[in-house]
Amino acid sequence: MTSPVLEIAHATVGYDGRPVLRDVSLTLTAGEVVAVLGANGSGKSTLVRAALGLVPIGAGSVALFGTPQRRFRQWHRIGYVPQRLGAGGGVPATVTEVVASGRLARRGVLRPAGRADRAAVAAALRAVGLADRAGDPVATLSGGQQQRVLIARALAGGPELLVLDEPTAGVDAASQEAFAGALRAFRDGGGTVLLVAHELGPLRPLISRAVVVHQGGIAHDGAVPEPAGHHADPDHEHVHPHCDEEPAGLWRSI
Ligand SMILES: Nc1ncnc2c1ncn2[C@@H]1O[C@H](COP(=O)(O)OP(=O)(O)OP(=O)(O)O)[C@@H](O)[C@H]1O
User: Fold this and answer.
1) CB atoms within 10 A of CB 58
2) How far is CA 60 from CA 71, 109, 219, in A?
3) Per the confidence metrics, is the pTM higher than 0.90?
4) Domain of 197?
5) How far is the CA of 15 from the centre of ligand 1 (A)?
6) Which end of the chain is more exposed for a tag (fewer CB within 10 A), N or C?
7) Which residue, judged by its Cα, is nearest atom 1 of ligand 1?
8) Residue 185 placed within a domain
9) Could you tell me if the ipTM is greater than 0.90?
């Protein structure tokens, strides 16, 4: 049996000794596309940062591809797009340069880019629909297009696990569709995805499982919950696989 891609077991995570999440467990197997949902400030980002070792865990354990996180060295197997990171930032880098930086962990900084690197960068740009902008300065792209550049950078590294923190927040509809297409292709190629989301939008059909963070724990782990507005539909069957008490207003924005 192959190891889970990610295994968080009974983890307590917080900042400055103040726990945000207590006794949380989450397992991702290869090929899953898991959405982390929850209200503002519930700890969604904290959960994915803990998975990647960006926030230390106080108790419990995290393993990546079967290796305890503290001994894990194969970071090129993971692509990470953090929340609200501007790709432009006043730096006059071109789209290609930013995406090519996603190859560094794989090829090493000192070895010049080879044919495989260039092919990976071109494929990643095609995947997010930005091949025609390859030579443009990132700063000249829209916010949604810049977000797609960051996703292409993560894809260019050829990861097996993609971790995305609110990849479509504030992103225009065309970029959301392009992103959904890129994610579908990544999944169809055997990739695993963990993404934090407020609104699933065009990503919804791709999500195989949803995890809801609520009151310092995981309140639901299973089917994607229906948006709150859906309850008003006359033909809506009121079946909830998760909990008796539904966190008020949690789904309103989905
Ligand atoms: N670096 C940090 N230092 C101290 N506290 C933090 C830090 N990052 C987050 N927090 C706190 O931890 C809690 C959870 O934050 P987190 O960003 O994980 O929530 P979230 O569910 O991702 O929120 P949002 O949907 O608004 O992005 C919040 O109370 C937040 O203020």
Assistant:
1) 14
2) 15, 34, 18
3) no
4) 6-232
5) 9
6) N
7) 15
8) yes
9) yes
